[in-house]
Amino acid sequence: PTFNYSIDPVNTNAPGASIDLNGEVNATGSGNVVVVITEVNDCNTSLPLSFAIPYGEDPDLVFSPANEIVCDGQLMNVLLTTNYINPGVVQFWLTDIVYSSPEVNNPTSLLTPGPIGNVGTSCFLPGAVLNESVENIGNQPQTITYKFIPTRQDGDLCEGDEVELVVTVLPTPKLDIIA
Question: What does the pLDDT read at residue 107?
């Protein structure tokens, strides 16, 4: 038997959807691709079988606000969201925190994700808020860089690109009076 593959253009909403002779589906954007398969042998052609394949790009992570600037001791408030076609299957795991200087003290977290880099415990879900209080004991602005990898948690374990959130921590103004 021979299998023929085609795309149902009426019910497919993924842009650029295509299928090759071997049945490999491609699309240029997220959406559903409806594939129609028929089997042909020397005598007959089968009734068409169709099924929808959700096609998505790699998961992403969007920060709101994109650039956070806080004062010494102030609580940051960064919303973690995604534009992924099915946000319910996305999680973000924290892989690293980099401090620009020892003058930036370790943050005190109100939302403790667990040990950094441990995918089982350092995960955030879409809608989580990164809300940490940070201190800058120096007299210059310093930064904290949070590194995340968005992944699918539905068994696919597809990873998106690493995303960095840079938080600038301004120092408390210090006035030195010399008599």
Answer: 61
